[in-house]
Design goal:
Layout lengths: L1 H29 L8 H20 L9 H28 L1 H6 L6 H27 L11 H25 L3 H14 L13 H6 L3 H13 L7 H25 L8
Helix pairs in contact: 1-5, 2-3, 2-5, 3-5, 3-6, 3-7, 3-9, 5-6, 6-9, 6-10, 9-10
């Protein structure tokens, strides 16, 4: 109850600031862009088209029993959210040092605002995803109402991971370059364009330690296989989300008072 009251107080006091930060990000991102917010719809479609062409024509990837375009798109929109949100969250504190030095602002506001900003774009990318679902005849079912659980877990996980990244980036600016390499590796270790069934033995177990695997698995179970994910999938999604959020809060809170010395 105390945690809920603290959250209510924080939002009441800093909710307007959070809204302004998210609004500012939208204005900056789409400033002088001809298509503007339409890019949020076009980008995942164009990316999917390129990846589909490469992996179906050149590498002959397929997913037996389900439509490959829907398979690819369902993994792509989730990974793209995490990739963009974590990248922006990582640089959010460093980028706002000038503001932090002038007035008191709870520093965690910055990583959270980035995750929310990208989250709005993520909701927009669901439009082309569902368009492809209908066009390919995959169809929808009542279980789609369960998808917000996976999206919420993904958001919570990303916030926690973003808090960790933003803390490390303050003390180690090389993190901006290192994380680009990490994300590239993470992309190929996440079953976005391939089926994890092609990987066997202990290596598959290692791949399943990837939190994004479970968020994508949850979504695909519903979208592609018209079934409720198993209880273990629900648990893994929730567990990864809560563990990383707690870790992020602890690491960020422990170090935030030292940020001022690394401007």
């Amino acid at each position: 109850m105390k945690i809920i009251n603290n959250l209510k107080y924080t939002y009441k006091k800093y909710g307007f600031l959070l809204q302004q930060l998210v609004s500012r990000d939208f204005k900056v991102k789409y400033k002088r862009s001809v298509l503007g917010i339409v890019w949020s719809l076009l980008y995942p479609v164009l990316t999917m088209a390129v990846m589909a062409l490469v992996f179906t024509r050149m590498f002959k990837f397929s997913t037996p029993g389900v439509n490959y375009l829907v398979y690819l798109m369902s993994g792509l929109v989730i990974f793209n959210y995490f990739s963009e949100a974590s990248n922006l969250a990582m640089s959010s504190v460093v980028a706002n040092f000038s503001l932090i030095n002038k007035v008191y602002i709870p520093k965690y506001i910055f990583p959270i605002s980035k995750c929310l900003f990208v989250g709005i774009n993520f909701l927009l990318t669901l439009i082309p995803l569902y368009a492809i679902i209908f066009i390919t005849g995959t169809g929808i079912n009542i279980y789609h109402l369960l998808l917000p659980y996976a999206f919420l877990c993904m958001f919570i996980f990303t916030v926690g991971f973003g808090l960790i990244l933003s803390t490390v980036a303050v003390f180690l600016r090389d993190m901006f370059y290192i994380y680009g390499v990490v994300l590239t590796l993470w992309t190929y270790m996440t079953p976005i364009m391939y089926d994890i069934a092609i990987i066997s033995g202990p290596l598959q177990t290692i791949f399943k330690l990837n939190p994004l695997y479970w968020f994508i698995y949850f979504a695909r179970d519903i979208i592609l296989y018209n079934q409720v994910p198993g209880i273990n999938v629900w648990i893994y999604c929730g567990l990864f989300a809560v563990v990383f959020l707690v870790l992020g809060i602890i690491i960020f809170k422990k170090n935030q008072d030292k940020f001022i010395y690394y401007v």
